[in-house]
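Reading a protein record of the kind used here takes only a little practice. Think of the row as the fold of the chain written in a discrete alphabet. With that in mind, consider the following protein and its fold in token form:
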Amino acid sequence: MRTLKDKLMPEYLLDPEVFAEAINQANKITDDLLQTYSNIWQYCSESFQVDLCLLPSRP
């Protein structure tokens, strides 16, 4: 993720193709993180005696 952050920093915006690639990578990482959170939430809700009100909201 650090590489992605570096690509999104303003001083690296000189090359539109690099910036576009970084934006697309950020979009994919966001989707992956949201899916991971959803999977964890589902696992916790099914596998543990967890009060679901204590978990952050379901994605």
Remarks:
- The chain has one domain: 2-54.
- The helical segments are 2-8, 16-47.
- The longest helix spans residues 16-47.
- The chain has a mean pLDDT of 78.
